[in-house]
Amino acid sequence: MMENQFDIFFRDKNYLMIKNSSFNYLNRKYHIWKEFKKYSKKDCKILDIGSGISPVSPDMKNTKFADISVDAVKFLKERGFNSEMEDITKLKEKNESYDVVLCSEVLEHVPDWEKGLKEIKRVLKKDGIAIITIPVYKKYWNIDDDFVKHVQRFEPDKFRESAEKLGFKIIKERPIGSRAERNLTVLIVKAFKKNSNNKIGALKARIIISMNWILYLIVRLSVLAPNKKNTSIMLYACRKI
Questions:
Q1: What is the pLDDT of residues 71-124, one digit of tens each?
Q2: What is d(CA 140, CA 144) in angstroms, rounded to the nearest whole number?
């Protein structure tokens, strides 16, 4: 049985640092923060679903973190954050209890992802905002999708249609990935799988982290001119109506 990616990252602190410097994570966080600033209000109540050990919330103090991983919840709790084990398809939260819900790279792991969207809508206050990122286009399916146990890549138009049917107004639809991002991700995962049984030393970890920042800048440049047809990741800002 293949070892779960998140079990690998919990092996030691250097793996944890590498994960949280991933160019993909930095890229998603940048775009999520950008949209959050546009639509949020001061001291709003936030739910970060599927945060794992890599939250995307720009306001950790006012955020509750929800994840299905025992280790991820423990990791955040030990650092003083409000974190609880929850499943996106049956959240423990009360109706209309959050101003903002963040859901980044989660729905692709969920067979009944529309039920997840319904739960996001249920816990949002009226006019609340959900900021969602998803990997898109089946043509981009590769080794990394299998590695992290994706069950689907989305078709952007179908996702938008489903969100609107459920009672969301799409206020922002933005490509935040590219072919460059896709190719780099596949190369990195292949290298990671090859070396995942080896312990990573502090020096090697620092080198990898530095490389990630360079790759992050490359990816940022590659999405300066967004292209919905060629993107590998989409961001949606959705208002509950």
A1: 889 999 999 999 999 999 999 999 999 999 999 999 999 999 999 999 999 999
A2: 10
Say which DSSP state 4 is in.
Answer: P
**Backbone φ and ψ of 191, nearest 5°:** -65, -40
Domains of the chain by start residue, with CATH: 27-177+226-240 (3.40.50.150)
For 191, residues 6+ apart whose C-beta sits below 8 A from its C-beta are: none
Tokens of 240: 């509950």
Which strand ranges, in their side-by-side order, compose the sheet holding 82-85? 82-85, 63-67, 46-49, 98-104, 124-135, 233-240, 168-175
Q: What is the mean pLDDT of the chain?
A: 90
Q: Which helix (H) or strand (E) holds 190?
A: helix 179-195
β 124-135/233-240 pair status: antiparallel
Interatomic CA distance for residues 49 and 183, integer angstroms? 27
DSSP 198: S
Rounded to whole angstroms, the maximal C-alpha distance in the chain is 51
Summarize pLDDT for 135-194 with one digit per residue, the tens.
Answer: 999 999 999 999 889 999 999 999 999 999 999 999 999 999 999 999 999 988 887 777
Amino acid present at 193? K
Q: What is the pTM of this model?
A: 0.91
Q: Above 50 in pLDDT, residue 19?
A: yes
Residue 195 host element (H or E): helix 179-195
